[in-house]
Amino acid sequence: MCLYASFEGHLENFHENKVDHILFHEGAKMPLICLSRNRLQCIFVILLCSCGLFLYMNAVPCLIPTCNDPSNTDTASQSNEPLIFIGGYPRSGTTLMRVLLDVHPSVRCGPETHILPHILYLYSFKIDHIFGQLHSANITHELVDSIFVHAIRTLIHKTGPDAERLCAKDPFIDLCLKQLLHLFPKSLFLLMVRDGRAVTNSVLRRHIGIKYLDRSKPENVLQAWDDHYKHVLPACQNSSRCRVVRYEDLVLRPREQMKGILEWLGVPWDEVVLQHDQNMQEVKLPRKERSTSQVVFPIYTEALAQWSLPGSAVPPSLIQKSRSYEMLRYFGYASLTIPPVYGIPELEVQKRAQMLEKNEEFRKLFKL
């Protein structure tokens, strides 16, 4: 099974008047479908409207079949744009990663679109079931691919200013990273990974709403994290265009990590990525994103081991049991001491930690 969850409140914006706005031309108030002379545009509008109506009437299920392999092998319908995608389980450092890239003068990421996961859901799971009907209407795999490429490119391009490299970060898009890499064969994917026990503690303490995830028991969150990477990691490992980034490494050794990441992305090095907190003027941080209050500070290490300390939402019994979780063992987290030592921080990180200890707002955030 392939886990898919949407954050609470995603569907609240799909009111009837907004769906109608998609269906009707703003000036003439005539159905846009009827006015379109271009068949591709017509089908594109129909699919987007169907997606909107689907989201409005039905919440996306938490459990869906494993992402289908792309059916089309024709590269003519694909995009050569070198987009950057960032994915991973919530509270795994995806926002930090996108902010570090966002301050780079050559890159623009922007906040979560919220609709990209639903477009990928439609592409990966709904279209295959109706391809017999589409084929009878002379709608080919190539045409469908070109429609979704256009939809995703338009979404990314129109949500912010242009830049040499554009990137997108949305929850759970890593579940369909194989599809993204298929539609955009020059794109690259950064898969963020963080200790599942730290993720569990963060999700519970910060009341992160993940639809259909029962947060009444911490082991449910840890199990969901474990299941998530069981399904996502193989797709990443099987592609040279996907790179696993450990949150702990990024926090402890940001210079070393960002140099490697930027070189892999083909983006020139710039010291600004190590001073993101001083260069946030052009970075959009939506109030509703739970990480917003944290990424305005310099990179810090205080949150790394909180899950193992008194007051953690992860009970001692689960900490002991956690060593049996497959992905904790795979990533090496299960063999760490408690409290864990994830690595040796760079000197710059140590200096910033001393500075942050005197910051009252920061101390309040972490109750130091």
In short:
This protein has 368 residues and is α/β, with parallel strands linked by helices. 44% of the residues lie in helices and 7% in strands. It contains 17 helices and 7 strands.
Percent helix: 40-55%
CATH superfamily: P-loop containing nucleotide triphosphate hydrolases
Mean pLDDT value: 80
Number of domains: 1
- How many strand units? 7
Q: The biggest beta sheet, please?
A: 5 strands, parallel
- SSE-based structural type: alpha/beta
Order of helices and strands: EHHHEEHEHHHEHEHHEHHHHHHH
Give the count of helical stretches. 17
**Low-confidence sequence ranges:** 1-37, 52-66
The name of the CATH architecture is 3-Layer(aba) Sandwich
Specify the CATH class: Alpha Beta
How far apart the termini lie comes to 41 Å
Shape: globular
| Strand-residue proportion | 5-15%
Radius of gyration: 21 Å
**Spatial sequence of strands, sheet with the most strands:** 4-5-3-6-7
What fold name goes in the CATH topology slot? Rossmann fold
Organism: Echinococcus multilocularis (Fox tapeworm)
Protein name: Protein-tyrosine sulfotransferase
Family: Belongs to the protein sulfotransferase family.
Catalytic activity: L-tyrosyl-[protein] + 3'-phosphoadenylyl sulfate = O-sulfo-L-tyrosine-[protein] + adenosine 3',5'-bisphosphate + H(+)
